[in-house]
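F.,

This is the one I mentioned.
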């Protein structure tokens, strides 16, 4: 894995230091609760991020996923460093992002740790395969992005993990699952918005 661009990290750090130095008494009023409460208004597509190696597989539900660049294709995932999947991504240097379709809210809860089901058991009852990276790929996901880890930036409890996309596939059901205001929904394609 390439190390994070040191000049970019230094630039971010120096901007933060400058802000604090110029405003030593500036109150930090944003609490975690305020932040979570406001961020829940931001609708997001729901994915399962997976990693795997020699018989072991892990995955977690993630909404903090974003396109970074198209030429060549890169995306980012924000992953809590305490998670098993984070450890396996670091160990293998690969991960896959599976974009769920609108009918998969129960699967999102399972991989989101809301049902008490952990590890390998999260994969039961569904068809999974692998592409070039070896990370588990859900065969009927809306879209799948198979990635090699190329950058990692630690921010508080999470790592921003940047993946170079090796392979992309789309499947039949193209209506993605959306998460907003602590609930699941869907965005209707423009052609379906009648009345
Ligand atoms: C809708 C939803 C979105 C989530 N998004 C993220 C995310 O973007 N990044 C993250 O680190 N955890 C996210 N989580 C929490 C993880 O999915 C959860 O902590 C994970 O299942 C823990 O896995 P583990 O038991 O293997 O440690 C999300 C959970 C839910 C239900």
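My design for it:
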């Amino acid at each position: 894995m390439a190390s994070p661009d040191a000049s970019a990290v230094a630039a971010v750090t120096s901007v933060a230091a400058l802000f604090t130095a110029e405003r030593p008494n500036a109150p930090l009023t944003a609490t975690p609760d305020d932040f979570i409460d406001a961020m829940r208004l931001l609708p997001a597509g729901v994915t399962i991020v997976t990693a795997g190696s020699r018989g072991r597989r892990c995955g977690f539900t993630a909404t903090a996923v974003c396109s970074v660049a198209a030429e060549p294709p890169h995306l980012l995932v924000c992953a809590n460093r305490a998670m098993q999947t984070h450890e396996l991504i670091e160990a293998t240097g690969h991960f896959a992002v599976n974009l769920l379709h609108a009918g998969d809210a129960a699967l999102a809860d399972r991989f989101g740790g809301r049902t008490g089901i952990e590890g390998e058991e999260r994969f039961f009852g569904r068809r999974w395969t692998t592409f070039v990276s070896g990370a588990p790929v859900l065969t009927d996901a809306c879209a799948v992005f198979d990635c090699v880890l190329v950058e990692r930036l630690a921010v508080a409890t999470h790592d921003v993990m940047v993946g170079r996309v090796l392979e992309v596939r789309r499947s039949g059901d193209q209506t993605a699952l959306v998460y907003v205001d602590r609930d699941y929904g869907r965005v209707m394609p423009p052609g379906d918005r009648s009345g």
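Residues 6-182 form a domain with the Pnp Oxidase; Chain A fold (CATH 2.30.110.10).

Talk soon.
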